[in-house]
Amino acid sequence: MARLFSVCVVSTLLHQSAVAHVESRQQPLQFNHEHNAQTELHLSGRFLHLTDIHLDVHYQEGSSVSSDCYSKKNLKKSDKVAGFYGAPGSNCDSPVALVQGTFQFVKQVLKNPDHGIDFVVWTGDNSRHDKKNLRIKEAEVAEANRIVTSYIIDAFSDPKRPGHATVPVLASIGNNDIYPHNRLRYSRKADTPVLNFFADLWAPFIPKSQDATFRRIGSYMVELTPNKLWGVSLNTLYLASFNGAVPDCRRRKWPLAFYQTNSADKVQFDNDDIETEASHKLSAGDDVLNWLEVDVLIPARNRNISVYISGHVPPNVVNYGTDCYSEFSRLTFKYRDIIRGQFYGHMNIDHFFFTTPDQVLRRYSSSTSLQSTDLTRVNTNTELVLFSSSKQNDADESQVKGVVTIMSPSWVMLYFEYLILHYKVVQESKIIPQPIFVSPSVVPVFNPGIRVYIYDVVSDGLGDPNLKKRKNIPATRFGTLLDYEQYYADLEYWNRVTDVERAASVDDVISTAETPHDKSFKHQTPRSKYLYELEYNSKSLYDLSGHGIDTKGWLDLAKRLGGSTVSQPKRRKKSKKSTKKSTGDDQDETTKDRWNQQQNSKQKETRNLRRLFFSNMIVHLKGLISPFGL
């Protein structure tokens, strides 16, 4: 059986190779923006999204999962142990082997001519979590970011032009990429050491014209395709509610007059809509969102340019400060004609949602068992609890029987309930912007996942004339998302392959797998030599309507997940003179029976769809039963 790389390489050597990867990397990678027009002729219409790698060089294969995969002391036979590629369903971070396998797949499969990658969206959290069993230090956080940056550089460097990149990279800061975690200070006038560190580290990715902006607010913009598509790396830590180092945004008029805008952009605002800097104290979130609107969205609209927005923390009422979320939502609604996609990480799970007015969600949540105080628990995504299958509601008996209790994030059930409520809410909104896409993480909280988006590189921004003739399909423009491919790594399988290969030579893998203690293994179809495989295509799996994967298709999916019902037929009025069962009564009963059948069928479809969605949400982690009774 072909292999990703020989498992004879000891884990300590993997650790050493990761460090050496940094020390021996080539000169700082530079993306030549002046030559971007040349690459436009060779666009593949595909881009990569990587998030939440959480490299942990202290990870020990064979250690106890309960020790965060750090210690083999007092190990019992009943203990769950750390596998070679990781420990899915645990609190452990990513071993070096998993990170190397991930980038080997990117470099040798996704980047090759049969696929192709036009640019990379890389949404942060490269360092491991801080653990009680092993406290993290500032130097380790910085080193983890250097190592992962070196992997990006190695995967997308141009051998014909040393020191240059073949693609642009939108890199974002994660809440675990700073020390201490979750706390990023802000100063408009003085330098912020953390932002200076990343500005220097990511100088290959940040245009020189954006350097000063990044050092102030940790955000930057890249021209992905000249005069057609811009990409934004948004510092969401200045919007996040858990960042105690900065206050929430301020409710006020927008935008601020002190931004250097073109005269053509300024005319869109009346004098009454503009405040001066002296009229209030600017918060970090204000600065970020002002920049996003005035320096990116307004010029993009004036030039008919599509915009992608990326960041670490997804924008919703759970993650953002109340006022920051309100202002961000306002921007997504106002500029929904040019914002063609939004891409985030942080949550580790595969899902989507829409920016909706927070007061709408609060109105709906107040009438349900899901309270606002419960929603705040969703952010504590590093605490783990045991979920027992016997406690799952509405599960089929055949599915419950024999399921082993596993470790799983304590918030996943609660967040799934929150999403279902959200999907019900968006049905009430008449105007909805593009959905927010949250990709699963590389770190094996569940199984690792990476994503490739397919986007429109043909339309000139004025729309396809052939599509305009069809009223149910909107006019397309450059950057419209057409589909995405979700890839995942089945770590249970690959960890087992590693164990088998260590028990025999590589040539004897199949025969060894057929030994009595591995009978179930021999019935599995041999996988590719790479860790990752295609999990699904979004458009075909979810039967998304419309052109590409536009808002209409995702709203329809939200409606199906939310549980749309069949309208109940009206009963005929009985005649006062009639005392016997009439023909009308028979018709009413027949109609009622037909309605009940339709309703039952609809509910079954909803349960099956939720079951499928939940399975993808947790990246096929085995042992956790979907709460499809919601």
From TrEMBL:
Keywords: Glycoprotein, Hydrolase, Signal
Stretches for region Disordered: 565-607
Leader peptide range in chain numbering: 1-20
Cellular component aspect of the GO annotation: extracellular space; fungal-type vacuole
SUPFAM superfamilies recorded: Metallo-dependent phosphatases (SSF56300)
Biased composition (Basic residues): 569-580
Domain of life: Eukaryota
Molecular-function GO terms, alphabetical: endopolyphosphatase activity; exopolyphosphatase activity; phosphoric diester hydrolase activity
GO BP field: polyphosphate catabolic process
InterPro entries: Calcineurin-like_PHP, Metallo-depent_PP-like
Domain Calcineurin-like phosphoesterase: 46-346
Family annotation (Pfam families): Metallophos (PF00149)
Keyword Hydrolase: yes
Protein name (database record): Calcineurin-like phosphoesterase domain-containing protein
